[in-house]
UniProtKB/TrEMBL annotation:
Residues 182-261 form the Baseplate J-like central domain. It holds the Pfam family Baseplate_J_M. It comes from the Bacteria. Residues 268-356 form the Baseplate J-like C-terminal domain. Belongs to the Mu gp47/PBSX XkdT family. This is Baseplate J/gp47 family protein.
């Protein structure tokens, strides 16, 4: 009998059924009152047992239970990581250097200068982990005084900050580990190791791409965008440092020469003619249409690592745009001035360019 069916009433009924009919079993009787406390405790035990069973299996475990279960397979929950951003600093006469370790406030979080890229340009690491470090763009406010500083600006995301891996993401990696065995430098192992590096979203692996012992990995970052040169350099060093290629000083096995590259961003310009409701205007819905197209691109990018190539389809664009409130009809849709689907290369992801409504 299933544990969830073992209610207090059912347990009482079963216990009383074992008592001879010659004994008074009515509620309030001696035998009834003697059995009732034990039946209540057993009901609690069965309820707890059901919960404990859920905690024991990866498809129902959560939080620390899932973390511990995944450890049995050598799959570890990825921790939150800090965003690394580009900071640009100027004085009265132009770009100027600042001390490493200088702290600045931007939005609701603080950033610290951790590495100099060039005159007046620094890597700025967020002091808080997670995606919160990716959000702010604009002026930075010095926390400590820096003589001669007249302008401080936070610009590009170099390495995206990531929140701690969710239960569903960890569960998916655990289940994948059951079907894809990572061993001895095979494709599964390269993919597993690279995608666990902070800032990496997905990796597409090309074995023996330039002869025996060569491996190429093409990446997108954790925000689904083309990764920065800083992230590519970080991954290259972790997997197979360029200055010691093939020597096994990174994660790659001895004899494997690994090349890490960024996915290619293909600009996608979309144009169409919209028929709008009388209460709507293009200016009023333009941002919603762009967000809808970007959401479609994001869904494509999420499948990139496991696809031969991505195809941006006119039918998918039109169906999604028609769902935008205020849009009645769409005609004449083109992608990069062509009335047909756009097939990308096997290492390319779509990057939204211009969005044009010819009816405007």
């Amino acid at each position: 009998m299933a544990h969830e069916e073992m209610t207090y009433e059912r347990i009482m009924s079963r216990c009383l059924a074992r008592v001879p009919g010659t004994v008074d079993k009515r509620e309030g009787s001696i035998i009834y009152d003697a059995i009732a406390p034990a039946a209540a405790e057993l009901a609690i035990l069965y309820s707890t047992l059901s919960t404990e069973m859920d905690r024991a299996f990866p498809d129902t475990a959560a939080d620390v239970d899932l973390t511990n279960k995944a450890k049995e397979r050598g799959v570890f929950r990825l921790p939150a990581s800090a965003a690394v951003r580009k900071g640009v600093f100027k004085g009265a006469s132009g770009y100027m250097d600042i001390p490493i370790g200088s702290r600045f406030s931007g939005g609701t979080v603080n950033y610290q200068a951790t590495r100099k890229e060039s005159l007046g340009v620094y890597q700025m690491t967020c002091e808080d982990t997670g995606e919160i470090g990716n959000a702010y763009f604009g002026n930075l406010i010095p926390i400590t005084y820096i003589a001669g500083l007249t302008s401080a600006e936070l610009q590009d995301i170099l390495i995206p900050g990531e929140d701690e891996e969710s239960d569903e993401e960890l569960r998916a990696r655990y289940m994948q580990s059951l079907s894809n065995t990572a061993f001895g430098g095979n494709v599964a192992q390269y993919k597993q190791q690279i995608e666990q590096i902070e800032g990496v979203g997905a990796a597409k692996i090309f074995p023996v791409w330039a002869g025996g012992g060569t491996v190429k990995a093409v990446l997108v970052d954790s925000s689904g965008a083309v990764p920065s040169s800083q992230l590519i350099g970080k991954v290259q060093t972790a997997i197979d440092p360029e200055q010691n290629a093939g020597e096994g000083l990174g994660m790659a096995p001895i004899g494997h020469t690994v090349t890490i590259e960024a996915a290619t961003g293909t600009t996608v310009n979309v144009a169409f003619t919209l028929t709008l409701e009388s209460s709507s205007s293009w200016e009023g819905i333009a941002e919603s249409v762009k967000e809808t197209i970007q959401t479609y691109f994001d869904s494509l990018i999420s499948t990139w690592a496991d696809s031969d190539h991505l195809t941006v389809r006119i039918s998918q664009l039109e169906s999604r745009i028609l769902d935008v409130p205020g849009v009645l009809d769409i005609t004449g849709t083109t992608i990069n001035e062509t009335a047909g689907n756009l097939e990308l290369s096997n290492v390319a992801i779509p990057v939204l360019g211009t969005v044009t409504n010819h009816a405007d």
